[in-house]
Amino acid sequence: MRSGTQALSLLAVPLNVHVLRALDEESMLLPDLRRTVGHPPVTTMRSYLRSLTEIGVIERYRENDFPGSVSYAITDDGKQLLEVAEVLQRWLGSAPEEPVELGGIASKSAVKALVDGWAAGLVRALAARPLALTELDRLIPQLSYPTLERRLTAMRQVGLVESDPDSNGRVNRCRATTWLRHAVAPLTSAARWESQCLSDQVPGPGRTDAEAAFLLSVPLLELAPELEGTCRLTVEFRRGSDLEFAGVMVTLTEGKPCSCVSRIEGEADAWATGPILDWFSCLGGANGTRIELGGEAALARALEDGLRSTVVAAQGGAPAES
Predict the structure, then answer these.
(1) CA triplet 2, 10, 205: central angle to 5 degrees?
(2) Strand, helix or coil for residue 105
(3) Cβ neighbours of residue 211 under 8 Å, at least 6 residues apart?
(4) How far, in Å, CA of 259 to CA of 319, rounded?
């Protein structure tokens, strides 16, 4: 399971969203909660509440004054998941055709397509460059061709990918849309929540997640035109006593990225490095992260600040708290 998929899969289910939002107002007896979220079938309601309780985002308890009565309340983990939901809502609100409301049928399709593409490696691959289905099949051999085709079609239908206008007549390649690149905000927010609240249940973000986050977000940058040069952006991973790095090498020309590749070897004019969750916090707009800068300070700082503000500003959101 890829980092972030558990949180986003929970929020893809409309009933989960309605339950969490209702309990964020106050704890509720089961009949009141069921009425508030639209009277779903009792067996369906109990099943979803059981799942949310097991994962720790709500809690169940019996009322002393009413023997046999059961109430539900949101936990601190659930409140933090609602913060992820706010980031996801901002992203859905910037959908290319029309704003999408979290908790509706359209949001379920969009979030599922994003999660399936992220889990399959499609997002990572298409963030790097436009690719045809046959090329994706070679890059992602662990999934069958029909499965890749279904997931790519779903991503196209909701506006996450589009045909590459530079494709020639023989090869039809797809490329990531700007909206898919903005999805780095909910993806990294979901990964941070899992690391804080589900660290004993799901794996933390790894090399592929880091590369995908950079490859999605860097092309969105538009910096001061006098900025030029190469900067290495890396995350640090501990493997025993060894420190390993993954990330991207970015080349700027007149303030715009003209190259962003996951090969980080070679000389660079500047560099920025730090733990992966600090980078993910940076992409969410947070200050006070443990990212170290080196080389040409102006270049490294501009890239860090640009990544901190670009995605959040594009979605009309406010910077996160440090």
Answers:
(1) 25
(2) helix
(3) 124, 246, 247, 248, 262
(4) 27
* 273-282 per-position pLDDT tens digit: 999 999 998 8
* E strand map for the chain: 28-29, 58-62, 70-74, 161-163, 174-176, 229-239, 242-253, 256-261, 270-275, 292-295
Looking at residue 322, what is its pLDDT?
39
Check which CATH number belongs to the domain holding 243 and give it: 3.30.1050.10
Low-confidence ranges of the chain (pLDDT < 70): 64-68, 169, 312-322
Tokens of 317: 């959101």
Is the residue at 194 inside a domain? no
Summarised one tens digit per residue, pLDDT across range 217-227 is 999 999 999 99
| 88 within some domain | yes
Does residue 61 belong to any structural domain of this protein?
yes
What is the residue range of 230's domain?
Answer: 205-314
Rg (CA), the chain: 21
C-alpha span between 184 and 312 (Å, rounded): 10
